[in-house]
Amino acid sequence: MISKSHWSPGSDVSVQSVERSESGGWIVSGSLTPNGICPDCGFHSPRRHGWRRRRLQDYPAHGDEVTVDLAVCRWRCLAPACPRRTFSDQIASIARPFSRRTSRVGEIVCHLGHATGGRPAERLLHRLGLKISDDTVLRQLKKRAQGTAEPPTVIGIDDWSWRKSQTYGTIIVDLERRVVIDILEDRDVVTCTNWLKRHPEVEVISRDRCGLYAQAARQGAPQAEQVADRFHIVQNLRQAIEEEMNLHGRATGRALPSDADNITAAGSLLKSRLAHRTSREEIFTTIHALRNQGLTCSEIGRRTGFPRRSIAKWLQFETPPDRRRAALKPTSPWYFEEFLSQSWKDGIRTGSALFRLIRERGYEGSQTHLQRLLAGWRRAEKQAKGPAVEHKILEPVRDPEMGHAISPVIAAALCIKPRGKLTPDQARKVDALKADSPAFATMRCLAMRFNGILRGREADPLPAWIDDAIETDLAPIVRLARTLNRDFDAVKNAIEMPWSNGQAEGQINRLKTLKRAMYGRAGPELLRARMLPFRHTD
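That's the Transposase sequence above. Prediction below.
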């Protein structure tokens, strides 16, 4: 049997009655133990001013709503210096001020909102007997997310995309505790710098090789050591190798088509275009022949399957009409061709500058669309200046067994893979690449040395490796070596320190999952509330 004490929302509440409400729920009437202590001055008042009622939503009972109808005593403060004239007994252990539900219900609401989001939490709460809207769930979650975590000393910082290739935000992770510290709305240098200035306790900053975060770390946390991410360093090496192997042709892994096949494909395309034009002429002739027989446009449409208006339009011409081009709209950069041509002649050649200018004049398209137009103008200028520089394209290296050309992507992946981890098929390809491409042999030697430096956790051989890479005269490798030399301290720390940005990358995957689960409608405040550990929001 459930006693009155089981219905009590807290130890300070004395339950007087439990009754059924008209809606089918339960109403628990109770009163607080009076104390009469002023919250401002601490004076114990003996004079009672009156009573007030406070209704709170509590845990459901057997799926039915439970409402706590609490009688709270109100007192007069008799202290002459106290500005407060009246006050109520405090029920902080039961509910927060001005709250409409008990603290234990608010805890459940925040837990479900943090784990599932707004609408899923609303559906679950309704099944449990708590009628709470999704807006209330998110409002409570954001309110609880105002707490701060313990001061971080080792952080990882990385970017994530609101919209890919357009807008980005910044995530900051505590690498020691493996939790998210903060979510920033953008990846601006000023924003990151200001955040780091507010956290002078940071001692180590792990980042990718983006210069933006390096600059923010230098300005906002000059006392902290920067650590470049090892994964991105190896990725840069692989990309440099791939760029160099592109000189052997962009193979796709399939056998290269012969010249005869290329001619056949071009001929087929031309035949298809001629066939389309011929079919238009046949349709035009058929329509005019049926018209000469005295048939109406509607009857011709029933026989040919074309709309009556199209047939009436075609009957007005003596030859098949050419297809009309669609009228230019502000979404097309050609709509502003005259203005762009004049700006181009005036010396404004960068795509971003021209994009801003035509956006002010009503352009509604993308910058990528504009860049395609400008790329054609640049190619035309280069052809007008003189003959194009012919880059030396080497013969693609082929698999000795299958005869397929080895693509630059596969060659770059095999170049950084140790011999002990190669399969027999991969080892055969590596031997063929080393035999037919001296550049690949040089780059593989450098890659194996670089892997040894990373795994050996000793940065002393790194300057010698950079010097040897610069002396290879392979442009992508030389460029990589020079960038490593400019960021030498961060690369050295990446080799010698245990920190990396792997934890930040994992948290970004979780952030993307939450963002897509909320259909991309979550702002930075809600994303931050759901990304922070729940213990930070207690």
